[in-house]
Specification:
Layout lengths: L2 H17 L11 H6 L1 E4 L2 E8 L1 H4 L7 E2 L3 E9 L8 E8 L7 H4 E9 L4 E8 L3 E10 L4 E10 L4 H39 L1
Parallel strand pairs: 3-9
Antiparallel strand pairs: 1-2, 2-4, 4-7, 5-6, 5-8, 8-9
């Protein structure tokens, strides 16, 4: 093998390595993470945090909980006005239909005023799957509702697969094209030198 081919192959390898997904752990103080976890309930906002104390200790999640079991969902009020309004929370199985709400409800907390400024829900999710959280905020004249997805014990296999398809495959194609280009260019120079 020629030196130009090895150089181009090394360059291709470096490009592929740079495209590999690296594990990252977001801190709860990271601003993007906070914005992602904010639920809008009409003109108000709540910050959603999920914990699994028995499984993951104090690791915070935002709608994607890694395993089944005891799960604590905390809704922190952003605006102080929420402290005087009744809030109802319901968690349902994501079946695609909400016609029989009682049949798909896994957790229901009736309307209540939370002067502390947060709601803490402790529930044992014994089955993995997709759920939907429903927050209903009612005052004397206003009535607002918000929905948020909850994924319990589901791996992100699809998102990792899509990462490989959307990032790694084009990088591999570019790297392969560059390798072929440099290889053919090196062969052409060699044949030009032998003809001269």
């Amino acid at each position: 093998m020629s030196l130009p081919f090895l150089t181009s192959a090394g360059l291709c390898f470096v490009m592929l390595v740079l495209g590999l997904p690296l594990p990252a752990q977001a801190q709860h103080t990271h601003e993007l993470e906070k914005n992602f976890c904010i639920l809008k309930v009409g003109p108000y906002g709540m910050h959603l945090t999920g914990y699994q104390p028995d499984l993951a200790g104090g690791k915070e999640n935002c709608g994607e909980v890694p395993g089944t079991g005891r799960t604590v969902l905390v809704l922190d009020y952003i605006e102080g006005e929420l402290r005087s309004l009744p809030v109802e929370v319901r968690v349902i199985k994501d079946t695609g239909s909400e016609q029989d709400l009682q049949a798909i409800t896994v957790l229901h907390v009736p309307p209540k005023v939370y002067p502390s400024g947060f709601i803490s829900l402790d529930h044992n999710f014994d089955q993995p799957g997709k759920y939907v959280g429903l927050i209903t905020l009612g005052g004397t004249q206003e009535h607002h509702m918000a929905r948020f997805p909850i994924s319990i014990g589901e791996s992100n296999v699809v998102s990792h697969f899509m990462h490989y398809i959307m990032v790694i495959a084009p990088l591999a194609a570019i790297a392969g094209g560059a390798a072929i280009f440099f290889f053919l260019r090196g062969r052409r120079k060699t044949s030009d030198n032998t003809v001269s």
